[in-house]
Here is the input.
Amino acid sequence: SYRSLEPRRHEDVSSTRSLLYTEEDTESCCSKYCLPSRYVIAILGALGFAMVYFLRVNLSVALVVMVNSSALNPENTTGDCPGESRPKVPHQDGKYMWDETMQGYILASFYWGYIPLQIPAGYASEKWGGKWIYGIGVLWTSLLTLVTPIAAETGVVYLILLRTLEGLGESITYPAMSAILGKWAPPMEVTFLTTIAYS
Here is the structure.
């Protein structure tokens, strides 16, 4: 209707502010010099996402030195291209005899666990609060990553299972942050705070 296109009055805009914004905040000295809580939440969310992303890709980097590539590819033990002249660097191979197919399973197993909890995590974040779900997801993934060397030493099946469980833990962080920003971000700042958190 025509009235829905009218600009909001000042009192309507003030009702859409953050849950933490109160009249007392405008009078406190901290509100003049401190960062608002919603920005702190977005920045902490970005740091948490950086951490879980590091935990996701660290095995992709470490797998290169974990695998005995000389035994799997004996015709190219130096790693140099044919005809290329450069000084030979001593190379120490890893101890695991995982071929490319097995390495693909190890890396893909993370995403097997990443799929099933996306929607349930969103509902749980709305019901019990996103900070708990987000914190559990980051802590769960961090603790399981510490066990990666033990799982690799025990056997490749255990490593694949561990990576699947890590994917379960990390999958709940993104829906939880969406729930957090849905509660804390004022409508006029939703996209800005979401950009800070997710980028």
About this structure: DSSP finds twelve helices and no strands in the chain. Residues 37-66 form the longest helix (30 residues). Residues 88 and 106 are 31 Å apart (CA to CA). Residues 1-16 have pLDDT under 50 and may be disordered.
